[in-house]
Amino acid sequence: MADIKQNYASNQSAIRELTVEFISSINSALDEGRSKEVIDLAKSLHYADLADLLENLGHARREELVEALRDSFNPNIFAELDEAVRERVIIQLGISRVAEAVADLQVDDAIEVIEELGEDKQSKILGSLPKNERALIEQGLSYPEDSAGRLMQRDYVAVSSDWSVGQTIDFMRDSEKLPIEFFDIFLIDDKHQPIGTVPLGRIIRSARSVKLFEIMRKHIKIIPVSMDQEEVAFLFRQRDLMSAPVVDAGVLVGVITVDDIVDVIHEEHEEDIMRLAGVGEEDDLYSAVIDTMKSRFSWLLIHLMSAMVAAYVISLFVGTIRELVALAVLMPIVATMGGTASIQTLTVAVRAIAMRELTPSNAYRTIGKEIAVGVLNGFIFAIIIGFIVYAWFDDSLLGLVIGLAIIVNLIVAGFVGSSMPIILQRLGFDPAVASSAFLTSITDVIGFYVFLVLAASFLL
Amino acid sequence: MADIKQNYASNQSAIRELTVEFISSINSALDEGRSKEVIDLAKSLHYADLADLLENLGHARREELVEALRDSFNPNIFAELDEAVRERVIIQLGISRVAEAVADLQVDDAIEVIEELGEDKQSKILGSLPKNERALIEQGLSYPEDSAGRLMQRDYVAVSSDWSVGQTIDFMRDSEKLPIEFFDIFLIDDKHQPIGTVPLGRIIRSARSVKLFEIMRKHIKIIPVSMDQEEVAFLFRQRDLMSAPVVDAGVLVGVITVDDIVDVIHEEHEEDIMRLAGVGEEDDLYSAVIDTMKSRFSWLLIHLMSAMVAAYVISLFVGTIRELVALAVLMPIVATMGGTASIQTLTVAVRAIAMRELTPSNAYRTIGKEIAVGVLNGFIFAIIIGFIVYAWFDDSLLGLVIGLAIIVNLIVAGFVGSSMPIILQRLGFDPAVASSAFLTSITDVIGFYVFLVLAASFLL
């Protein structure tokens, strides 16, 4: 026991974490050209942490480190790297070095690395792979992007359901080509179609003579190879699945495990949050300035066009504003309240649609609720703002006008903020993408119009 | 084989999905008082789908369904229900019925249900539980909210590392009280401290005489009971863990598996997206109108205060605006461009902080990049907007002034949008919460000020 503990202790301390201290020590080793120390430090990191380190370093520093690690570059790092960084590392290491690395990866990781590359690079890498592996990867790439087929692992254990526990255990002991980790054994019929699963725990706990179909779990979820990964993630979460068989035309071709799902959930969520803010998914810390600029440009342009409409509405009232310039002073308040309330509503609705909580069956109820919230907050803020404006400009009628405008504005925000994503979703658009620019535009335009038209009728 | 397949087929069709058709058939069964059919329909659903159904139904309808299911209410539904809906169902069913259900739940699920209840209800339910279960739940509740201790399952398999494979298999066959599902066996020392894990697959594939320490995985991540769940989720994702032991003062007390992590990731994401939009986490489709209103009120109030500052800035220039009322027309463009650009930057930064991509080591680089993006887009939009304004108002100087204001505005948006969340994070605040109101305020104020001050100096 004593040396196990020692072993354990030394192993624990050997796994370095990516800390500020670690980064500064690798930086100074690079500065002083102590390349042996650089390699040792990098090798002491888990590959996921090393990928983080590469992402964290500046461009020049990263190139130095990649160069130092060229001969000992762990292939798994590729699968962990952010896309933009990965592409630069691939260019630096060269296609033939990358092809070697891809050959060492699991098929699903290899597909993840290859799918983002240009066709040119893809075919070069594929060309240099062993035939068998190449076929598996090409088959994977033939499934649609973000589908179960891309996500699945090709290594699984499948046996006939009339095997006994003993037979299965012997098979697993003798077989050389089992997956590294697995939790469920799939039972298949004579057409290689999955009919149930047996968790390993049940195998261990059953007598050798028991037939697998006696202990199999029959209520299994079978995932078609073309199912979208978002749908797959929903199923896993809803049913608390650990793994599920993937079928192509009914035939078992792979397995998806819950740890793959963790990454999908992250990805899908990133999509949602980025789209709500009008940022492309590829726009992250690691993308080049010019790519980030482009990704933001189109969204800014759409918002500019919305703002032009709002400006046009105001231009209809220049006479009114010239006479009562306080209106210009107060317009940001109208815009801010409407914009904030509509973004709040929109976010709740988009989130609920993504979580499948907002469905046709409760759509009207949801819109009704948001309008009710708009009415309540509208009245409260009408009183608050009306009073402030009255106190500021000593003009009770102006206070009344802005109060009325705020009520209309918050009700519109509740109505449009909830109904627009629902309508977009029904029409087949992503509710997160299109909503926020139109939304602000609508609340701005209606808000300014109501405010200025009331002002023109009551105050002049 | 034949009847296995039949069995399988009937099982598949027995698992109903929650579809629009299903909802309408349960609705009509409720309408027509066919309570036997209601119960059958509800029972044909997986409990997670039944929970979704309860969430989806209107208040009155839900009460009818809960009443119909009172005697056959599956305890697992409680763990799946949204908090707001759960509370109403608990009130309807009554504490003693709920206590029965809690007694049937796994300890981690029971804690999830109980932790959200008021102290009064908590102690009533705890009081009616069997002593042993009560102690486990009370221990769980003693750990901080959102900690590993709340998340972990208490059922795990732990044996001494000098046991042989054969001994372990016999132990598992004989033991009555094993967890329903498990994938790893934990090896412990004589102080009940975890020193390694053995995946079940390795047990099955090894000869009976092999000692567990020979096949154990030594590089395990050990999770302290007080670790925040966000940290735990990060570890699981970073290390592709399937399960990890949880220790209290070094002693093994539970296990966290990756399927628990899936829910944590959802929760944490929901927090991020909601906070960015200024919505409370408890603000969802199912919360009452009054709760939603309150949750949004404070954020609207903060935005109102920001807007007041912007209004004050404008009020300093009433003379200028009165002379050149086109300025009032153009102000929404200035506000929209700055607001949109800063929210884009903020979202990328907040997301990167949450993903631990934005760290002290690349903070300056990130801010620098965002400023560069601001400069580029600033110049492009200055030209676009300057030209539009020149064409609209036939005033080249006005076009120049708004162009300059847009450049300043987008640079400020890039700088403030990236540096503010970094600073807030360093000061120990949640970068998502506080940022967006301040941000819009700062870009509005600076944008309006620069625009109006330039207009006052060049145009009058």
Report on the architecture of this protein.
2 copies of one chain form a homodimer. Chain A is mainly alpha-helical. Chain A has 3 domains: 10-143, MgtE N-terminal fold; 158-274, CBS-domain (Roll); 289-458, Tetracycline Repressor, domain 2 (Orthogonal Bundle), CATH 1.10.357. Helices cover 69% and strands 6% of the residues of chain A. In chain A, strands 1-2-3 form a 3-stranded mixed β-sheet. In chain A, strands 4-5-6 form a 3-stranded mixed β-sheet. The longest helix of chain A has 31 residues, at 363-393. The radius of gyration of chain A is 30 Å and the shape is globular.
CATH fold type of the largest domain in chain A: Tetracycline Repressor, domain 2
Strand order of the largest sheet of chain A: 1-2-3
Overall pLDDT of chain A: 87
Silhouette of chain A: globular
What's the Cα radius of gyration of chain A?
Answer: 30 Å
Order of helices and strands of chain A: HHHHHHHHHHHHEHEEHHEHEEHHHHHHH
Number of domains of chain A: 3
**So what's the CATH class of the largest domain in chain A?**
Mainly Alpha
Q: How far apart are the first and last residues' alpha carbons of chain A, in Å?
A: 92 Å
For the largest beta-sheet of chain A, the strand count, sense and barrel status come to:
3 strands, mixed
Considering residues with a beta carbon less than 8 A from a beta carbon on another chain, report the largest interface and each chain's count: A-B, 134 and 135 residues
Low-confidence stretches of chain A: 1-15
Report the CATH superfamily of the largest domain in chain A: SLC41 divalent cation transporters, integral membrane domain
CATH architecture of the largest domain in chain A: Orthogonal Bundle
